[in-house]
Structure formats: structure tokens, C-alpha cells
Amino acid sequence: MKVILTTLNAKYIHTSLAIRCLKAYSEKDFDIELTEYTIKDPVMNIVSDLFQRKPDVIGFSCYIWNIEETIKVIDIVKKIMPEVTIILGGPEVSYDTDYWMKRLHNVDFIVMGEGEETFHHLLQTIEGDRKFHFVYGVAYRKQGEVIVNPGRPKSILAELPSPHRFPEDIPHLGKRVVYFETSRGCPFSCQFCLSSIEVGVRYYDIERTKKDILYLIENGAKLIKFVDRTFNIKRDYALDMFEFLIENHGGCVFQFEITADIMRPEVLDYLAKNAPPGIFRFEIGVQSTNDPTNELVKRRQNFTKLSRTVTMIKDSRKIDQHLDLIAGLPEEDYDTFRKTFNDVFALGPEELQLGFLKMLRGTGLRIDAEKYNYTYMDHAPYEILGSDVLPFSDIVRLKRLEDVLEKYWNAHRMDHTVNYLMKHEFTSPFDFFQEFGDYWEGQGWQKIGHQLEDLFTRLTAFLQHRKTRHMEVILGLMKFDYFLGHKYKPRKIWWDHTQDKAQWTAHVRHIVEKPAALSGDFADLGITERDLQKHAMIELLPFDLNDVIQGGTGLPASGGEGEAATMLLVLYQQNETGQPQYYTVPV
Prior knowledge:
Residues 1-133 form the B12-binding domain. InterPro entries: BchE-like, Cobalamin-bd, Cobalamin-bd_sf, DUF4080, Elp3/MiaA/NifB-like_rSAM, Methyltransferase_Class_B, rSAM, rSAM_horseshoe. Its cofactor is [4Fe-4S] cluster. 39% of the residues lie in helices and 18% in strands. With 587 residues, it is an alpha/beta fold. It has 4 domains: 2-148, Cobalamin-binding domain (Rossmann fold); 164-389, tm_1862 like domain (pyruvate-formate lyase- activating enzyme, Alpha-Beta Horseshoe), CATH 3.80.30; 391-469, no CATH class; 497-586, no CATH class. It is globular, with a radius of gyration of 28 Å. The termini are far apart. The model has no long low-confidence stretch (mean pLDDT 93).
């Protein structure tokens, strides 16, 4: 019996953990093949590939982001291969299983919850006596009736084989995200999250975990994302793992989900002193800073301690942080969410993700939806459309904010410019992103694509439209950000360059003749005039650039417009990091 295990990933192919766990457990008894696609792949391409593999059984791993596309694949597969047995598993179908069996007539079985033992038992039963009522954790059909069997007890993790040792994965490890779990379960009870349904946390043997990680690193893994819901729930365990990864990282990057308000100071101190820059990334779910909201969703959170942790990590300059917010939680209206956004943005995360509440099957909030007058999508991803305190009109506005937040903050294309605007020209970060998002949609830009240069010209148009002050400083910062965003000297620029060739040459000669005016470091480089012509961009800025970078306005104390205050030199000759270097000199 040939078994295909597959999943449709959201954006790109990665080493899917769920189907690898199933294969590792069952491959000793069955011919199991893994294949992965994305939800962007044409359905017929996926079906054609599955057809050519000649399977007897196909198992699909289902999530909110792929369930509807997976259904399309299943319906066509059953038309061309009616004899194939279709099995679904994963979080999206593990709850309301009776609903899925009745909706999806082309599905033969659903595996609920942890799948290793259940899937293996089901395959044995399909090939054997077909007495499916003995297979705990499975839903099936009998004479047209849907039967949902009792659940199976949780697996003993020490008895599960490693899903990370398949030889066929080795050529791809360096090009994919490797998902890795050191534990299962979550200690918290957040009512919007599926993890709250499972009580308690179970750990894999730490020595086996370390051996698997070393195996992945030695075979070329570049990014390992730990899927533990709270990696730092046990201080000693987290510290031991951090020490191990620091000693053995081999250039690999590790990403974790942590709970920031329980992170112990001694762990933070250890990371600040010992973590190499760039090998760790932390994802922190803040969701809301509104205390009544957190109480209603049973989310215990000390924002003061969380802020301390995020600030200590940021000050160490060793670890990038990704903070999450959820709009639409109970009692979180537009105004309180504005405060939540500004509270969290003030912490200066490298990324701030704004998500919208999804009413996931099996969660407490979905069960209590009527209590808060929630309306939401009937099909995945079940995103809310409104509540008693957040109407759809406010959700639409926040969607606009989310769009420009991704483009102008999380992408880090013009950090100096955006920081200046939020500090000097707008009431708060929220107001900048919201006002710009409203203008963006008003221009119809959400309907068309954009190049890098478009982001600069569109921000310029918005700022000029609202008659923003000190545009000479803002445009100068935008040029600065544009230069720093290129590893090589840009072939084109988005503004009208006013310096003629004679002026530009004069500036080059001034720099070559008096390099110490820029900095001693530059003088030591031995750059010639020809080198500058080839590898540098020069711009005159009518303000003090260094003052702006340090948090000032860059304007003269009198508030006047002033004369040209800075000559900016951006050098693209490759250094050790491959990043451009910049120098300034008063003029």
C-alpha cells in the first residue's frame, strides 16, 4: 500500500513537521512518500503530480490557511482516482469533526489531534480487518453514517521517533525553514488560541533534541524555527538550550516563541553577554495591553515585566524581536487598540505584526461569539467582521494601517525617515500609519503593485498633500534611507538630482583632498577620486544629519530653514558585511 503524505504551505515550501512526524512513526511498516505544495500552485498541477505517484492513500495536513484549497484538490482527486483513500488531519479538522465529515463527502477518514499512533493504527486497519470502531481518534463513515470515535490518549513523546533524519531532506535543508518542536502543549488558557485546549506541557528528551539539532546544523540547516508555544516556560530548560545553541550554532539562525513577562533576568543577562548577534530571533505575542480585554480572554500578562524584557533584549543589540497584536478581542474598540498599538510600538520592535482575530474552531471565543456579538467569516480563516465594540468600518480602517505598517516599518526600507515622522510630525505612530493608510487607499494604490522607488514617491505625495512641515529634512532622510537600502550603487534614483557634473566632481575632490574632514576611518581606506566616482553617492543635505540620527530635528536652533548643513557620502565599495558605509561632513 503506497501512502502519500502532503500539505499545501502558505507561501513557500518548508520542511513540514506534521507530515514528517507521521512518516517517521509509520515508515517501518508502510511505503510512505512526502510531497509538499503551496496554496498558490495551480490545483491541476497538484492533482497531476499526485496522480503520477500512483497512491493508494493520500493524507492531507489541514490548517486554516490551506483547507479551502485542499478541498479543491481532494474533489478533483476523487473524480480521477475514486479508489484512493483520502485521510485528513491537522488542527483545522480536529474540532467540529462531524461538520467536516458531513461537508466533505470525498473524505474517507479524519484523524483528530496528535496523529502518529492514530494514523499508523488506521493504516493497519485499512490494510487489515477494517474494523474502524477500534481506532481511537478517528472519524469515518459506516453505511452513510458519520462515526466519530473517542479520542486517543496523548502520546509519550519519548516513544516517538525523530522526524528530522530523512536522507532525502538533506539537499534541501539549507534552502528551507526547518520547523522543530522540543515540547507539546501550552501552560496558558488564552481563549482565542487552539493551544489553550490542551492542558499541560510535555517535553522530548533533551539529549535527543540536541542530537537532532546538531544533525540538522551539520547537514546545512540555516534557519530552525521552534514551534513550542512557550519556549521559556522552564527557566533551567531554556537556559540549557540557549547555551547549547550558542556553543553549536554553526551560523544557523534560531527563532522562538517566548512569553516575555516570565523571562528571568538571569537568562536575559546571559543572552546579552553571550549570544552572537543575529543567531536568535524572538516572537512575542502581546496581543493587547487593555487589562479588561486580557481578563476576558484569560490571558495573564504583566505588561511592565514584558516591557522590561523587550527593552533589555533590544538594548543588547543581539536579538531581533517580532511582536504580535490582535485586533478585535473582546472590549478592544478602536480607541483602546490605538493605545495598545502605541504602547507596543514604543518598545521599538524590529517587526510589529498586526493580526485580526480569527474565530478558530474549538476555542472559547468561538463558543462565546454571541456574547460579544461577533460576526465572522463562515469559512477559513474565520476572521471577524465586527463585534459589539468594533464595527466593520473600524476593521477596514485598521486593515489600511496594517498594509502600510508592513511596507514601511516591517520591511525596514526607510527607518530613519519613519522614525523622524513619528517623533516630529505626527501625534503618535498609530496616527502616522493610519493617516497614511487612509490616503493610500484613497489613491487606489492598494489595487496596483509597486516597485521600491514607488514607496518613496508615494510617501512624498502623501506628506506634501497634508502640507507636512520640514519637507527638506524629510526628503533628505528619504535619500539617506534609499542609499543605505542598496548593497551596490543604485543605477537610478527617484528624485531630481540637482547637482551638475562640475559640482559633483568638486565634492569628490574635496573629499579626496581632505578625507579627515569625514572621519579618520575614511582617511585610512586610501580611496582615490576614481574609486569615489565608481563606488560612491554624494548628496548635499540642508540639515544636520548626525543631529537627526541622534533624535534631534536637524534644524537650526532658530527654527529657520538654514543653509546646506551636511555633505553625505555613501560608499558602496564592499566591506566585510557587504553593506554600504556612510560618512558626513559639515559644509
